[in-house]
User: Fold this.
Amino acid sequence: MKKLSLLVCIACAIGFAQNSDEKQVKNIYSTSLLDGQSYAWLDHLSNKIGGRLSGSENAAKAVQYTKAELENLGLDKVWLQEVMVPKWERGKAEEAYIVDGNNKIQVPICALGGSVATKNGGIEAEVIEVKNFEDLKLLGKEKIEGKIVFYNRPMQADLISTFEAYGGCVDQRYAGAKEAIQYGAVGVVVRSMNLRLDDYPHTGAMSYGDIAVSDRIPAAAISTKGAELLSKQLKSNSKTKFMFSQHCKQYEDVLSHNVIGEIKGSEFPNEIIIVGGHLDSWDLGDGSHDDGAGVVQSMDVVRLLKKTGYQPKRTIRVVLFMNEENGLRGGRKYAEVAKEKGEKHIFALESDAGGFTPRGFSFDCSEENFAQVQGWRQLFKPYLIHYFEKGGSGADIGPLKDDQIVLAGLRPDSQRYFDHHHASNDTFDAVNKRELELGAATMTSLVYLFDKYGIKTSQKIKR
Assistant:
């Protein structure tokens, strides 16, 4: 009889906890949709400040703006964390032409982040089209030297995961110039990482590795329509030339900051949960999806917890990282300082996949912790959040990884993301208010659950 009574008590306790969690999650979603702040913050970040390339004046303005807004929320502490970041400037607008005899056809291009400039007046040379680095090896120096290498491998359209499609071809952007230099190329043009055909070239980081500055060649992205046109022209005339000019410049590193705010935990203040996005963006648009959305959603997590009257057990931090796009300096600096201070982070969540409708999360964690997450799925079902999978989390929180922490990434619907990623149409008008606020609520709900229940560990966390 006593055993039966105990089982009844346990069942009642579980039922009460589930009911309590359902009410809190509903409260979070209602508050975000009826009284959200993320869209207004994004409006200012995008339309009053604009693109926030690391080391730029706009990046510095964004640091001060978000710090002030976090202070207005009445958090227990808000501070700036110094970090040295690269400073690269695009300069005046790029120009490019497909040259066939006396016929010149202008096409849209943009310099890749970190590229060197062309010489004054630009460069003009014959073009050799390739799909990958293996093509370079097969062609060899004899056929490449003195030419512009044109990488024309599109994102794989039949992959449902657009991030998988992106990962399958981004190497040509990041390392294309480094590889082409070995064969005597004088420049590189890369098909934009974009699933649709349009006239928007997409920038992004590239690297020369340890190649001397004097031996580096200019690298640019061409729009998908431009790439199709250039490829077609080469098929009809293999001697077709390409001319492009760009005026970018790399400077010495400059001082910038991560922006951090926290609510101190009431029971386990030494156990830290962080939520964040990256404050920097590329310079072509205003960085609304990448990653203004993640920034304002993360800010709204701490606001929504306070607004719903929830008192965290553990310390909740919002971290707005600087320099994810071309260096990851902010994420590395945060992890470095946390290690120096002996801080214990138990959960980290990043939003860096756009402000579209949230579908769920991917988790980098133990099987035991993933089982706990799976137990929370029913709480998210009413909000059409169904994606709970093992996988990657986020670039900025990656340096925190150890055998204890749970890392997670918000996973919005990604089908339109690469239409805007790193391009001039990554602008405020492309973000839907309701979708953005649903994402903020989804993130807040997961943070609430990890704060309430903690993580599963094989070794007891020191408190």
Residues 93-247 form a domain with the Glucose Oxidase; domain 1 fold (CATH 3.50.30.30). The chain has two domains: 25-88+252-453, 93-247. Residues 6-14 have pLDDT under 50 and may be disordered. The CA atoms of residues 53 and 281 lie 5 Å apart.
